[in-house]
Amino acid sequence: MSFRGAFDDGDAWAAPSVPIESGDIVADAMHKEKLIKEIAAAQEDLRNMLERVKIAEKDIDKLMSGNATLQMYIDNLTKQMAKQR
């Protein structure tokens, strides 16, 4: 189950329409099983998002390191050019 766009759904945050303890053991078990599957799917979605965030953070670190190196190179070139004049 994917929760993309689920935050726009007003029902996602509403109270359950079926009472949790209806007295019907089979219906309660099915309801609980459905909830467990939804929770497991949400946890998997969160794990996937966390992994994407970690990858993005690594990419940002690499880019920032590269930018710092380039800036140092530019500064050194600028100083060398100023000395030549």
Entry summary:
The protein is mostly helical.
How would you characterize the overall build of this protein?
The chain is an all-alpha fold and 85 residues long. The protein has one domain. 71% of the residues lie in helices and 0% in strands. It contains 1 helix and no strands. It has one helix at residues 25-84. The longest helix has 60 residues, at 25-84. The model has no long low-confidence stretch (mean pLDDT 85).
Overall radius of gyration: 27 Å
Distance linking N and C termini: 66 Å
Provide the β-strand percentage band. under 5%
Helix content: over 70%
Catalogue the unreliable spans: none
What best-fitting shape do the alpha-carbon axes yield?
rod-shaped
Could you spell the SSE succession in H and E letters?
Answer: H
Keywords:
1 helix; single chain; 85 residues
How are the secondary structure elements laid out?
Blueprint: H1 25-84
